[in-house]
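One-letter codes give the sequence; the integers encode the fold. A sample entry reads:
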Amino acid sequence: MPSGKIIFFVVGLIFYSVKSSAQVSSNFSSSDESWTVIDNFTNTTPIYNASGGNTGGYISYTAPLSNTNVYFVSPSKFSGNFSASYNQSISFDLKVSATGTDAVPSFGDVVIFSPSATLVHQLPSNPVTGAWTSYSFVLNETQGWHNGCYTCSAPSQTQMKQALQNITKIQIRLKYATI
């Protein structure tokens, strides 16, 4: 069976940095913006596509035939103190070429790493095959986030705010089927 092409486009990880009070986003208008892919614990570079995204460019990756989780990993501009993003949204668009039953449970669909906590969110549904699916989640402990794993309890308000104060990376899952 051939590998499937998994396509991803970030409309804007709408984060507000305390340092600049500015929105931080990726729109892939001219490059991959230093996003990477982690596939079976190996980092690699995604393919940059100048057009064909939901509103412009996008990055893509062809997932292997293995039963591994594959994630896009944010660049350094999404690291640091984003406590001003509390009660704001993280938003992105995702397009996949195949969905189905996962053979390997994921760590979570959206994962925010911090020394104080790991915030995990599951998508309400798998992306639609062959079409852009938009997602947006409020960065608030009452909005479906979990502390440590997708089956763990919700973070407290203090844990949520502490995690946003020192984000080290964000991972967004891109493989939703055994292909």
User: Anything to note?
Assistant: Residues 1-14 have pLDDT under 50 and may be disordered. The radius of gyration is 15 Å. DSSP finds one helix and 14 strands in the chain. Residues 157-165 form the longest helix (9 residues).
